[in-house]
Amino acid sequence: xxxxxxxxxxxxEDLIRHEVEDKAIPSISYALVDRDGLLAEGHIQRHDRHFDxxxxxxxxxxxxxxxxxxxxxxQLAERGLVDIxxxxxxxxxxxxxxxxxxxxETGPYGGHVSLRKLMSHTAGxxxxxxxxxxxxATRPPLADTVAxxxxxxxxxxxxxxxxxxxxxxxxxxxxxxxxxxxxxxxDYLTANVLKPLRMGHSHCEVPPDIGARLAPADMWxxxxxxxxxxxxxxxxxxGSILSTTGxxxxxxxxxxxxxxxxxxxxxxxxxxxxxxxAPFGKRPxxxxxxxxxxxxxxxxxxxxxxxSVGHGGAIYGYASQxxxxxxxxxxxxxxxxxxxxxxxxxxxxxxxxxxVLAERNMGARLERTQRPPAITDEQFARLPGHYRDQASGExxxxxxxxxxxxxxxxxxxxxxxxxxxDDFVIDGxxxxxxxxxxxxxxxxxxxxxxxxxxxxxxxxxxMSDAEPPRNIEPHLGEYGPDFNITYxxxxxxxxxxxxxxxxxxxxxxxxxxxYRMHGRLYEDELLELDAVDENGRRGIRVGPMFLAQxxxxxxxAA
Length: 558
Known about the structure:
Layout: H1 6-22, E1 27-34, E2 37-45, E3 59-60, H2 65-78, H3 115-119, H4 142-149, H5 167-181, H6 185-194, E4 218-221, E5 224-227, H7 236-239, E6 242-243, H8 245-256, H9 270-276, E7 293-294, E8 299-303, E9 306-315, E10 318-325, E11 330-336, H10 342-359, H11 377-382, E12 385-389, E13 395-401, E14 404-409, E15 412-420, E16 423-426, E17 441-443, E18 449-452, E19 455-460, E20 477-479, E21 486-491, E22 494-499, E23 503-509, E24 514-518, E25 526-532, E26 538-542, E27 545-551
Helix pairs in contact: 1-10, 2-5, 2-6, 4-5
């Protein structure tokens, strides 16, 4: 094994251990790798968690799966079996999504849906398909999922090169692999990527005997943590792979070697990797600079002047990060067992790379950051409440939970910590140190005042919303499956949709019970009230996803 000093490993594990205990994460596992092999790997568990972590312990890698899908597709392109610039209908006859932007294109890339656009999320596809989506535990065949997408309506102009993340689009790429090869997606990927790289503990779907090998993971809300559900997701090409630290280290090593396995077998060509790692289109703001741009199923960015490539993953209870510095020949893999702890995984990944760079005299020594002081009893008593920005009229809430304070802003719960006096910083499970988020700092300079986002917010009395309009009131309540309930509620004189545990979206009214959603996950998706599915069930649609109505209990904003 290539050498990494005990001091360097101890420093990295100390940083990981702080996050595990401070953010109450069940465990974080890691691997550091270079072109020659594994530098170090380990598993750090919370003090009250005890799971037998072994070489075959698996993690759900979520959307890192997309990079495998791109590698598989580009193998076919190298053999001349697919043209990534051609209209996808060449390989999937009948696949003709409705393009409402046809004839009024705004960009240079043409109005067709190509494999390159699908892999770069610039094709304009909806985020989730009608079936086989993130909130669907039925796992329909990939062919059925893609057939339903064939007549869907594009939500963005495919000529513009603007990125809008789409699991549905990657499902289409996987279906092209199936039709061109005559094999299932999983069979092709296993034979042509996993087996050649000796990734023997990795799987394309959840195997029946996974229980003893799958690291336990938690979901969370402000009300508490709970075990993550384990089931096979539909749309396998977008996020279904389970793997281990050792197997993923072999995958990362192959990428760092220009696509060559250690035995010299070419998994993918250096030219294909260069194409996949070339940024394409425009990525929305709000991503860590380590992966701020996007190529084909790989994020592209910068770490201390080094070009970085990789991908993150978020799937029921697991947050993962693969980050490579190809020119430096090093990489890191992080697997956290807490839902949506991705920003923590990302900054730990950058920390790990900086430690290796410093060890090799290729970067500055990593400085340990100061731990924040504790919140005082007086602050717990004084700061909670509602605050209004007089200019915009927006209202946010500072909410107290046992031992913690949260700012309920941007549609998600943001944990806040003191820096000094009444100056605070956002540092929690969602955002914290190193986040590419421009509003980490806030303060309470005077009684009943909050300064945040460049504005002064003044305390207001506890908000009591007006009664919802009659056309909205019957639709408030719970929707979707037990393992992932969606809530519609009325707040601040508008309809809100709380989806995927803690992502609150504002709903802009359009017409006929339809709304445009604005928020972190489902930006610009259409919400339809009083929808009816093919079985006569009533509910809502988010994009093409149908969510059946559960009950009439109202939710409060998270």
